[in-house]
Amino acid sequence: MKKLEITQEHVTDVIERLKNKKAAGPDLLTPEIFKEIGKSEICLKTITQCFNNEMTSKNKPKEWKESRTKLIPKKKTDRKRFQTNFLTNISYKLFMSIIKDEIENHLKINHLIKENQMGFTKGGRKEDNIFILQYLVEKAFTSKEKKTLVLITVDYSKAYDSIDREKMIEALIEYKIHPHIIDNIIKLYSGDYTKIRFGEQEKRIDITSGIKQGCTLSTTLFKIVTYMIIKELEKEEEDTKLMTLH
Known about the structure:
There is one protein chain. It is built from 8 helices and 4 strands. By secondary structure, the protein is an alpha+beta fold. It has a 4-stranded mixed β-sheet with strand order 2-1-3-4, with no helix packed on it. β3 (about 195-200) and β4 form a beta hairpin. α1 crosses α4 (about 90-110) and α6 crosses α8 (about 220-235). The longest helix has 20 residues, at about 90-110. The chain is globular and about 70 Å long. The chain starts with 7 loop residues before the first helix and ends in a 10-residue tail after the last helix. The model has no long low-confidence stretch (mean pLDDT about 85).
């Protein structure tokens, strides 16, 4: 298996894509700091070398397995409802952005992108699925053959939390994602945890299930899992046409 080589150009690209004025992770290093670091050729070479070392290392930085959970009240009048923000280190986000790009490129060049899954897909537009839906409705009700049309809507509750991690890895293997990438994901998902602060107190919570919150790779992982669901449904009913709306 060919070794994955992270280039300095790729590192520069993911740094430039960082959004300013975003909260830092537990190490308190902000996107702006990394953008300043990225202006130095020596620093860029060092980061690139570190990322390449991490791609094949047996142990992952413990700092990359930690996140901070920030609870923000959704409404000032309702203190029981919170918006949850998960803060991870920017260095971790950069590394996972590179992995995300590698996976997305693999899906594209191997024609593995499912066109009936528009969610989390570059260039995917909900307007396309709405057009298809309108066409199917018109065809079902105007066809002389009296076609049967069945529409099902699914509202995922706590979508990321509901994903079985073993099934997620099986999906990555099924789609022939590079073994080094799968190995990195397994190791970074092993022993991950978050810390929540309540006033002066802080509590650590170990995470053993679900897709990581606050991770740049999560949308792609979730998408691949939905690919597997669609694939299984297509096996059940060969004559069924599937489409998804997001």
